[in-house]
């Protein structure tokens, strides 16, 4: 222990004595004692050493940080682009706080254009972002329903996007409407969450007073979804049925399973429902069958099966119309609600039809929300009248 300082001291003295004449003469001219100069020199070296160490440590640390950060960033990017929603689903502390403090429904980007010479309104449903999660997995299966009030005659639906909160719909719908009527109308765009085995949940909606829109320009904008107004949604009920198509035997089988929450049509606060299954081919009523009547219930269970002969060529053109009616002994039967399926259908109805076609021989069951009979009839009529301009556009 005691030997080491003496050794150091001798080494020091050796180096100083061995130094050439120039350095000592320089040191002599500095008005400080030698030991002080050495101390300053040593301190300088130490400072440089500390700086070097610091730099090394900093480099290593930021390197590690960068490596750690990279995956985070890629996850965030994926979440934003919407290709993987898993990142958004992770119950992050920040997300939970955000969701809890204000109920974010999300926002929708749409476009509006009115062609006065054609008397045609084009509604573009572009995309939605940061939609509220409605399913247990922390996602939704969004689609958009579009209609115009007060006529409420034509309802369009976009395709359903599975398990995403940022769907890119990119669909355009055209309404033939005179300008006079247009400026007295309200456009309603509602975002729903699709559920195969239960009622579809509304995420939010946008109502646009079309009298306040500047029609000289094409409008394209984002807007936050607001809560759907309950009073105006006429609830007609839901129906569940399964579809099965066997191409080899040309057999289309429709099983009417059940309906629920049907609208009350009778004075007693109930209805006597039955279901009509109808096929339309080349705009003509082609085939028709119906279930038995279930007395005084709003949630009837049918489980009745109907089979039709439909060739593979006909299945591409046929339209299946399912309607629920209230039976009345004393007066005319009233339609409660209606929907149609086929290659010209949209939204959930088209999805069900496509599922049936892509799963030959397998029964595919799905719930559907009933629409008003007038609405469906006019949509069917509209499809026919618009068929020619649509094909022209594609060509
Ligand atoms: C409106 O439609 C007509 C007829 O199809 C077309 O010639 C015209 O370019 C359209 N106008 C606008 C502003 O898109
Ligand atoms: C949206 O549709 C248009 C026309 O079909 C197409 O040109 C465009 O690439 C689509 N955009 C996206 C983001 O899919
Ligand atoms: C739409 O806006 C106009 C002008 O602000 C107003 O007179 C009209 O009542 C509004 N219509 C609806 C349905 O809110
Ligand atoms: C529905 O009908 C089918 C065929 O008639 C029968 O096999 C099935 O058990 C019925 N299901 C229920 C739940 O009643
Ligand atoms: Ca869902
Ligand atoms: Ca009745």
TrEMBL record:
Cellular component terms (Gene Ontology): axon; chromaffin granule membrane; dense core granule; plasma membrane; synaptic vesicle membrane
GO biological process entries: calcium ion-regulated exocytosis of neurotransmitter; synaptic vesicle endocytosis
Localization of this protein: Cytoplasmic vesicle, Secretory vesicle, Chromaffin granule membrane; Cytoplasmic vesicle, Secretory vesicle, Synaptic vesicle membrane
Pfam families xrefs: C2 (PF00168)
C2 domain mapped to chain residues: 104-223, 235-368
Highest taxon of source: Eukaryota
Gene Ontology molecular function terms on file: calcium ion binding; calcium-dependent phospholipid binding; clathrin binding; phosphatidylserine binding; SNARE binding
InterPro entries in UniProt: C2_dom, C2_domain_sf, Synaptotagmin
Cofactor(s) for this UniProt protein: Ca(2+)
Topology versus the membrane: Single-pass membrane protein
Keywords: Calcium, Cytoplasmic vesicle, Membrane, Metal-binding, Repeat, Synapse, Transmembrane, Transmembrane helix
Transmembrane segments: 35-61
Record family assignment: Belongs to the synaptotagmin family.
Descriptive protein name: C2 domain-containing protein
Lineage: Eukaryota, Metazoa, Chordata, Craniata, Vertebrata
């Amino acid at each position: 222990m005691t030997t080491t300082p003496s050794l150091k001291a001798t080494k020091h003295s050796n180096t100083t004595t061995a130094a050439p004449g120039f350095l000592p003469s320089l040191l002599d001219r500095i008005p400080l004692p030698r030991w002080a100069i050495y101390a300053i020199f040593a301190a300088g070296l130490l400072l440089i050493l500390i700086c070097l160490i610091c730099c090394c440590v900093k480099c290593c640390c930021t390197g590690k940080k960068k490596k750690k950060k990279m995956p985070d960033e890629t996850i965030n990017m994926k979440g934003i682009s919407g290709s993987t929603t898993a990142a958004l689903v992770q119950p992050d502390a920040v997300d939970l706080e955000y969701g809890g403090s204000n109920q974010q429904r999300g926002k929708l980007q749409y476009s509006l254009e009115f062609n006065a010479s054609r008397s045609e309104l084009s509604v573009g449903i572009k995309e939605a972002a940061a939609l509220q999660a409605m399913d247990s997995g922390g996602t939704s299966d969004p689609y958009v329903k579009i209609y115009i009030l007060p006529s409420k005659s034509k309802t369009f639906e976009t395709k359903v996007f599975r398990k995403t909160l940022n769907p890119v719909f990119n669909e355009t719908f055209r309404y033939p409407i005179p300008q006079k009527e247009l400026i007295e109308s309200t456009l309603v765009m509602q975002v729903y969450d699709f559920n195969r085995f239960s009622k579809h949940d509304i995420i939010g909606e946008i109502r646009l007073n079309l009298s306040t829109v500047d029609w000289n320009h094409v409008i394209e904008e984002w807007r936050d979804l607001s809560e759907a107004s309950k009073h105006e949604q006429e609830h007609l009920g839901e129906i569940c049925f399964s579809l099965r198509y066997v191409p080899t035997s040309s057999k289309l089988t429709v099983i009417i399973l059940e309906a629920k929450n049907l609208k009350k049509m009778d004075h007693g606060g109930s209805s006597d429902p039955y279901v009509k299954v109808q096929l339309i081919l080349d705009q003509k009523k082609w085939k028709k069958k119906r279930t038995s009547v279930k007395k005084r219930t709003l949630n009837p269970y049918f489980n009745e099966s109907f089979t039709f002969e439909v060739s593979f060529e006909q299945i591409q053109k046929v339209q299946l119309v399912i309607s629920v009616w209230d039976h009345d002994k004393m007066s005319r039967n009233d339609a409660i609600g209606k929907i149609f399926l086929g290659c010209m259908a949209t939204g959930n109805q088209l999805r069900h039809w496509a599922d049936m076609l892509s799963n030959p021989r397998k029964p595919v069951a799905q719930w559907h929300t009933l629409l008003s009979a007038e609405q469906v009839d006019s949509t069917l009529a509209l499809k026919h009248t618009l068929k020619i301009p649509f094909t022209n556009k594609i060509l």
